[in-house]
Design goal:
Elements (H helix, E strand, L loop, with lengths): L7 H15 L4 H27 L15 E4 L10 E4 L8
Antiparallel strand pairs: 1-2
């Protein structure tokens, strides 16, 4: 039906359409926001990996659970997005 290859003319056309839709002024802000989101996602994935590897062998008894709290680190220079978060607890009955 259509050609499977995307060449330089198609990429240029896509970029022109994106600039027309969003405006040249908003593109740097969108890219910056996307970068911050990617950094946060990467740090959260790393924290989850570390939590799994350092998890205690014996989980606490059901009556002894204490809510764990930690702070998500902000990107350098961005002090407004650091906030304490409560770790989710498993409350499902099995």
């Amino acid at each position: 039906m259509f050609g499977g290859k995307i060449g330089a003319p198609e990429i240029i056309l896509i970029l022109v359409v994106v600039i027309l839709l969003f405006g040249a002024k908003k593109l740097p802000d969108m890219a910056r926001s996307l970068g911050k989101s990617a950094r946060i996602l990467k740090s959260e994935a790393k924290a989850m990996k570390e939590d799994k590897s350092s998890a205690p062998a014996d989980p606490p008894a059901p009556g002894e659970e204490s809510p764990a709290q930690r702070t998500i680190q902000a990107a350098p220079g961005d002090v407004t997005s650091s906030r304490p978060v409560a770790e989710p607890t498993d409350t499902t009955k099995r």
